[in-house]
Design brief:
The complex is a heterodimer of chains A (about 475) and B (about 450). Chain A contains 16 helices and 14 strands. By secondary structure, chain A is α+β, with helices and mostly antiparallel strands. Chain B is an alpha+beta fold. Classes of the chains: A alpha+beta (about 475), B alpha+beta (about 450). The interface between A and B is large, with 84 and 87 residues.
């Protein structure tokens, strides 16, 4: 059966050649690009099982590989109060033992097939999946279905994973970049459902009990809150058969999952320094709440963010890395979620340059509105986004993960086709409006590093900066400060 | 059972080869499945070729290759790649420096021109040289100083090689980066960045006749120097004794240690067996080290084995971060037990089949993208000096027996001199004097 192909890359590659001049003349002149070639990608197809499970199949027969991903539409935003890390532990524990198989047996079974298995809980979603040669689909799906539908959550495995997670946190809490990202969560979302560390904290991980994990699983892991995605050497018919055979008996538990609402309405700009006297570098973030995934401003936001901080030629990288040599790379991200996610502009630099980089990040945010993104700059960031998107669809896992990104938010599959034309339709006016509405200061500032190296110059511009010694940092609190 | 049918079914990738008169080697694979093309230029120069007292120079130089010349502006590579939907980057290893791009296929001719331009000449000034050097120093701080185990990683090569320049880290150090001078950039370019020291790889949507025309037109005029490319001739002497090094870090929350043995060149006939041993010891969660040290005994936060084979010689490196509540000697004993066990009993057929299946899946994943195929072809041509390695490696791996795995591990580990590097949190400095830290 032939796949329906859409000719999207044609749009991607339609650039007017010759609008820049490289060279002075003679044989050293750059040749111009030829006319673009067209390409396309598979349209995924969809079915639904009687138990409510969505089954989505992207038929990609060119290589004998298959990616399968089961996505659950809730994750760490649904962690119980004061039990940060519940969704993460629950997700990771799926592959750590079922009623029939132990953790070593699961690892050995899937790896003997030459495959890999993964499971995790993150913000707004949890997932489990496999990547295998397509000839191994049946045995791999047997394992995937077993871990997803019959996890044992043995105490022994909970203790082992808890200990591993705590050790992982000990390492992360010594790195300025990861500490900054935990702090940004609290600064943007406060006590809201996205505020806590998704992987848990040194205080919450020990407090999570088996009953919390079982309850989380029973509440959210249900077929009508899930989607099963196949991408690779498989047909829709075969995918449906597999879904019916391996996931058909899955029944919904009682109780309807309620997507939570993140309380971002209370956000106020502030300036926070975490003092890590031994830090080898400072990590700086300028941040504020931005948009939801289903916002009509989504595509404008992506282009605005790309102009500011995606790619080597973005404004932040140009000003901070290329012009001034202050960082290995400066970037920004627009973290879209079911509720409003955070916008973050960030860079790491030597401790002595932290105050300077903070000002540069702020200045570039302002300039996004006053010096509009237009002409070649606009086109180049649209091309960057559409090119990255096309490349993300080249691999089976990448394709499955793009579909998963839609399934989590219940967006229609046609959204896949919409991406490239929607990005290319964004105008200068759209970008400027987005910047004015969501990105320009006031913002919050977070710096994690050796405070003595930068706090005095920093206070000249950020006089109300709150300095928290590393030993006093409490990620469980919205104000981040340990109580005596 | 290893799936022999699967091995047989994986079709060969047919590639074309040409050599220009100036010595440039060109390998290509035509594939029209997406309207993109991957271009890579592999220079046979790496951090082992860093000039004396200039540790990190080859990598610093890699950054300078983006700074342009009288025809190339510093923005050229962005204009021809990310600004039109492509991507570009570069990396430096101890043996090679690789520049790679993926572009919409109608940009193949301009990107070939740009790669040829920077092979022909570079123009830098103090301002952009100093500024880019600062970027590299920030890269050093980010990778090494901001990472609690960055200095531990650096120490492994530094302590494991006695005289071979592999002992110098690719990233260098701040003092030697600061000492680098602008004229040295020019010398390094004329010494190593020349067509007879480079391999061009092109994979994707192109017409072979166009590729031939364009490579001749843009790379053809670059002269081939009459001098020879200098090569590292230092011979690493055999280790005379076991060595024990102890380091302390104020940043490391958990102790760590590494054990290294000297290994052969990547082109050794032992490479497939060592690679499969690597997979059996530390590939995935069913691997021996994960199962024993991390899962069962819970003495390690991480445990890995790396058959790190390079052009001249390599290392077999065991690396462990100790779990909290456990001591380094406990973890070291667990590792030693595992090493003894595999040397004594070898591996099972099931373990070997698993490793072969994982290798095959990896080969398939390489083939998902033009860039993946280009990397595999470049590695075959430059690292293995045998482009056919792209297609013959499967059969070589398939032929490895359990007996051979046991034999090669014994050959390089049993009775050989080891170097043990221990890395402690600074707070334990008093408690863990080297004498006390030695294994019981």
């Amino acid at each position: 059966m032939r796949n329906r192909q859409v000719h999207l890359l044609l749009v991607l590659l339609c650039f007017v050649p010759g609008h820049y001049c490289f060279a002075i003349g003679g044989v050293d002149t750059a040749p111009l690009p030829a006319s673009p070639h067209s390409g396309g990608f598979t349209h995924p197809k969809e079915a639904k099982l009687d138990n409510g499970l969505r089954v989505i199949v992207a038929e990609r027969p060119s290589l004998p590989l298959l990616a399968v991903e089961l996505i659950i539409r809730n994750g760490s935003e649904a962690d119980p109060n004061n039990l940060a890390g519940t969704a993460s532990l629950t997700g990771s524990l799926l592959t750590k033992g079922t009623e029939k198989m132990s953790a070593p047996e699961i690892a050995s079974a899937i790896e003997s097939l030459g495959g890999t298995i993964f499971s995790a809980g993150a913000s707004d979603n949890s997932n489990a999946g496999v990547l295998v040669m397509s000839s191994k689909a049946e045995p791999a799906l047997t394992i995937l279905a077993d871990v997803a539908l019959h996890p044992a959550f043995k105490e022994e495995e909970i203790d082992r994973l808890r200990k591993q997670s705590l050790d992982g946190l000990r390492v992360a809490l010594q790195q300025p970049g990861s500490v900054a990202s935990y702090v940004v969560g609290r600064v943007v979302y406060g006590d809201g459902e996205y505020g806590h560390a998704a992987g848990g904290t040194p205080e919450t991980l020990p407090a999570i009990e088996r009953a919390d994990i079982v309850k989380f699983y029973q509440t959210y892991y249900r077929p009508d809150n899930a989607a099963l995605i196949f991408a690779g050497n498989i047909t829709l018919e075969k995918g449906k058969d597999y879904a019916e055979k391996f996931f058909g008996t899955w029944k919904a538990n009682q109780g309807v999952p309620r997507p939570r609402s993140a309380a971002t309405g209370t956000w106020k700009p502030e300036s926070v320094v975490v003092d890590m006297p031994e830090a080898g570098q400072a990590s700086i973030g300028v941040t504020k709440p931005a948009i939801k995934r289903d916002s009509p401003d989504y595509y404008s936001g992506l282009v605005a963010n790309a102009a500011l901080g995606n790619g080597f030629a973005s404004r932040l990288n140009r000003e901070i890395r290329i012009k001034r040599g202050l960082s290995y790379g400066a970037r920004s991200s627009l973290d879209v979620r079911r509720d409003a996610g955070a916008f973050i502009a960030s860079a790491q630099t030597k401790n002595e340059s932290a105050a300077e980089v903070a000002l540069l990040l702020q200045a570039e945010l302002k300039r996004l509105e006053t010096d509009p993104v237009q002409g070649d700059e606009l086109k180049s960031r649209q091309a960057l986004l559409t090119g990255n998107y096309a490349r993300s669809l080249e691999t089976d896992l990448g394709f499955a993960s793009q579909i998963a990104g839609l399934a989590v938010f219940n967006l229609p599959l046609e959204t896949l086709d919409k991406f490239i034309p929607a990005i290319n339709a964004v105008t200068t006016k759209d970008v400027t409006a987005f910047a004015g509405k969501y990105l320009v200061p006031p913002s919050s500032l977070v710096i994690v590093g050796k405070a003595s190296a930068f706090v005095d110059p920093l206070k000249k511009n950020f006089s109300k900066t709150k300095v928290i010694p590393q030993s006093n940092l409490d990620l469980n609190r919205a104000d981040l400060v340990k109580q005596k | 059972m290893a799936d022999n049918a699967q091995y047989a079914a994986l079709p060969s990738m047919s590639f074309q080869h040409a050599t220009l008169q100036n010595g440039l080697e060109i390998y290509s694979i035509e594939d029209h499945s997406s309207p993109t093309v991957a271009v890579q230029v592999w220079y046979h120069v790496g951090s082992k070729d860093d000039p004396n007292q200039r540790s990190g120079f080859a990598h610093l130089f890699e950054h300078m290759m983006f700074k342009g010349n009288e025809h190339l502006t510093p923005e050229t590579f962005e204009k021809l790649t990310e600004n039109v939907g492509g991507e570009n980057n570069a990396f430096t290893t101890p043996d090679v420096t690789v520049y790679h791009e993926v572009v919409p296929s109608n940009y193949l001719e301009p990107i070939l021109w740009a790669e040829a331009e920077r092979m022909a000449s570079l123009t830098l000034n103090d301002a952009n040289f100093n500024s880019e050097r600062n970027v590299v120093k920030e890269e050093y701080r980010q990778r090494i100083l901001a990472n609690p185990y960055g200095e531990f990683s650096l120490a492994i090569d530094q302590k494991s090689f006695a005289v071979h320049p592999y002992k110098r880290p690719s990233i260098g150090n701040i003092a030697e980066l600061d000492a680098a001078q602008l004229p040295e950039v020019k010398t390094f370019h004329s010494t190593f960045y020349r067509p007879d020291n480079a391999t061009l790889i092109v994979v994707g949507d192109f017409k072979p006749s166009d590729l031939e025309t364009w490579t001749k037109k843009y790379f053809g005029p670059i002269p081939r120097p009459t001098t020879k490319v200098p090569r590292v001739t230092v011979i690493e002497p055999p280790r005379k004794e076991d060595r024990h090094e102890v380091l302390f870090s104020p940043k490391a929350p958990l102790p760590a240690f590494a054990v290294t043995y000297v290994a052969p060149s990547v082109r050794s006939g032992d490479e497939p067996a060592l690679d499969l041993a690597d997979e059996i010891l530390s590939g995935g969660q069913s691997s021996r080290l994960y199962q024993s040290l991390v899962y069962e005994q819970q003495v390690a936060q991480r445990a890995s084995f790396d058959a790190d084979l390079r052009e001249d010689l390599g290392l077999l490196t065991f690396r462990v971060i100790v779990a909290s509540g456990k001591s380094l000697p406990e973890a070291e004993k667990s590792l030693n037990d595992q090493i003894e066990k595999i040397l004594r009993d070898g591996v099972t057929e099931a373990e070997l089949d698993k490793a072969k299946n994982r290798f095959l899946t990896g080969k398939l994943m390489d083939r998902e993208t033009n860039n993946g195929k280009a990397s595999a072809l470049g590695e075959a041509a430059v690292i293995y000096r045998d482009p056919n390695h792209l297609n013959t490696d499967l059969a070589k791996y398939q032929a490895v027996t359990t007996g051979e795995i046991k034999d090669v591990l014994n050959k390089y580990i049993a009775g050989k001199k080891k170097i043990l590097i221990e890395y402690f949190p600074e707070t334990k400095k008093e408690a863990a004097k080297p004498e006390d830290a030695k294994k019981p």
